[in-house]
From TrEMBL:
Its EC number is 2.7.1.180. Mg(2+) binds at A172, D289, T293. Magnesium. Can also use manganese. It catalyses: L-threonyl-[protein] + FAD = FMN-L-threonyl-[protein] + AMP + H(+). Its cofactor is Mg(2+); Mn(2+). Residues 1-26 form the signal peptide. One of its GO terms (molecular function) is transferase activity. This is FAD:protein FMN transferase. Belongs to the ApbE family. SUPFAM superfamilies: ApbE-like. Keywords: FAD, Flavoprotein, Magnesium, Metal-binding, Signal, Transferase.
Length: 344
């Protein structure tokens, strides 16, 4: 058995996010600040343009707070932990939590369950991101699948009711939630003119404008050359969110078969859709994060219809070296690898 994680070091921090760290030109009162840290189980890099104070520490602190006090399924102080511990009953959550849950369930419904937040037990059974990644026993897997289904959770205002045995896991949208929270902070700071935040290369948020007025440029990983040249570059304009899901991020190989971390809720096994990666750009972080996962599971044709519902742009890479772009992505993407071809 072999195992690999593609995001292992500061390499992606330095190269997957293309930006300038020079002083802002054209405005001597605007300064740029950069920071690299670790949050949400990944390397986080930030570049901030502001005429006020450096708030990069505050942004990372926000991500860590969301992870510990809201998203974690192991920390007893987390709202998700409390919901899971009391499955089978009705519990009250904060307005903010209720809003994120409502948005997540809406995406689950729109994707026909391709992105399902109740896959936590199945994910941990595979342990693809843990110390013992393995193909699970089919009987045990099928038993856990009986408790999978976003329909098993109901939301009535701030009241959440979960069926007994159901586990809520928001890992598929967690980084997007973090990006949305950062956007809220930046909007409240009127001295910030622009920023870009990169969470491990898979979730990126741009905010406002660069000092020179040019687009934010984000490199997209080649799913079969994760330590070499990049597939291409996507342009972000103003405040936008980018998310990439691929079979190269977390996986193990057993008996010559690649088992990746993007599981199909209908089977409990890694999704087989003919795709190796999906990149989505839209106006909301949670949606971008969840859509990239859902689109990978659905496959290109069904995914295109889902993206249209969310007014999102998509980039699909298949296992034959073809790149497919939605109309909006055609205006954003520049291919950099001659081993791939853009197909209609």
């Amino acid at each position: 058995m072999t195992r690999k994680k593609s995001i292992l070091s500061g390499l992606l921090v330095m190269t997957s996010l293309v930006y300038t760290s020079c002083p802002a030109w054209g405005n001597s009162e605007t300064a740029s600040y950069t920071k690299t840290d670790f949050a949400m189980d990944t390397v986080v890099s930030e570049t901030l343009y502001t005429s006020g104070e450096d708030i990069t520490d505050k942004l990372v602190s926000t991500l860590k707070d969301i992870e510990t006090n809201w998203l974690s399924w192991t920390d007893e102080g987390s709202q998700i932990y409390q919901l899971n511990q009391n499955a089978g009953s009705t519990q009250e959550v904060s307005d903010e939590t209720a809003g994120y849950l409502q948005q997540t369930f809406a995406l689950s419904e729109a994707s026909d369950g391709a992105m399902d937040p109740t896959m936590g037990k199945v994910i941990r059974l595979w342990d693809i991101d843990g110390e013992n990644p393995h193909v699970p026993d089919e009987k045990e897997l099928n038993s856990l699948l009986e408790d999978v289904g976003y329909e098993k959770i109901t939301l009535d205002g701030d009241q959440v009711t979960m069926s007994e045995g159901v586990t809520l896991d928001l890992g598929a949208v967690g980084k997007g939630i973090g990006c949305d929270a950062i956007k809220d902070i930046l909007e409240q700071d009127k001295e910030v003119s622009g920023a870009i935040v990169n969470l491990g290369g898979s979730s990126v948020m741009s905010y406002g404008q660069k000092p020179d007025g040019s687009s934010w440029q984000v490199a997209v990983t080649d799913p079969r050359d994760t330590e070499g040249d990049y597939l291409g570059v996507v342009s972000l304009n103003g405040t936008e969110f980018l998310s990439t899901s691929g079979d190269y991020e977390k996986y193990f190989i057993e008996d010559g078969v690649r088992y990746h971390h993007i599981l199909d809720p209908s089977t409990g096994y890694p999704a087989i859709s003919g795709l190796t990666s999906v990149t989505v750009v839209c106006s909301d972080g949670l949606d971008a994060d969840g859509l990239s996962t859902a689109c990978f599971v659905l496959g290109r044709e069904k995914a295109k219809k889902l993206l249209e519902q969310y007014n999102a742009d998509g980039l699909f890479v298949d296992d034959s070296g073809h790149v497919y772009l939605t109309e909006g992505m055609k205006e954003r993407f520049q291919l950099m690898k001659d081993t791939y071809s853009v197909s209609e």
